[in-house]
């Protein structure tokens, strides 16, 4: 899977999680943003990515951010901090 596909799947998965967390159905979300239920299903199954105007409405509706939407839950490991030696020892 290339990086674009991975991001698409991550966005789709997070859209679904956010909707469920808000306690909304696909029909309710569709009505709020002016699309069909099938369109919401395509967003949540990574068949389609929402246009920016719709994505912003969805983010507002869910009370989330774009950063949270693309978060795959994997923390990038930071390289270990170098330990500075104390010259007085």
Please give a structural write-up:
- This protein has 89 residues and is mainly alpha-helical.
- The protein is 56% helix and 0% strand.
- Helix 2 (26-33) packs across helix 3 (37-44).
- The chain is globular and about 35 Å long.
- The N and C termini lie far apart (51 Å).
- The model has no long low-confidence stretch (mean pLDDT 87).
Short description:
This protein has helices at 3-21, 26-33, 37-44, 52-62, 66-69. It is mainly α and 89 residues long.
For the residues shown, what is the average pLDDT? 87
The helix fraction, in percent, is: 55-70%
- SSE pattern, N- to C-terminal: HHHHH
Assembly state (oligomeric): single chain
Name the overall outline: globular
**Uncertain segments of ≥5 residues (pLDDT<50)?**
none
Helix count equals: 5
Instruction: Give the percentage of residues in beta strands.
Output: under 5%
Rg, rounded, reads 19 Å
Helix/strand/pairing category: mainly alpha
The rounded distance between the terminal residues' Cα atoms is 51 Å
By DSSP, the count of extended strands is: 0
Largest sheet geometry:
none
């Amino acid at each position: 899977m290339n990086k674009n596909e991975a991001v698409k799947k991550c966005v789709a998965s997070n859209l679904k999680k956010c909707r469920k967390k808000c306690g909304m159905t696909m029909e309710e979300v569709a009505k709020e943003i002016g699309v069909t239920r099938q369109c919401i299903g395509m967003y949540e199954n990574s068949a389609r990515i929402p246009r920016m105007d719709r994505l912003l409405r969805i983010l507002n509706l869910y009370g989330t951010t774009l950063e949270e939407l693309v978060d795959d839950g994997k923390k990038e490991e930071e390289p270990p901090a170098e330990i500075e030696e104390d010259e007085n020892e």
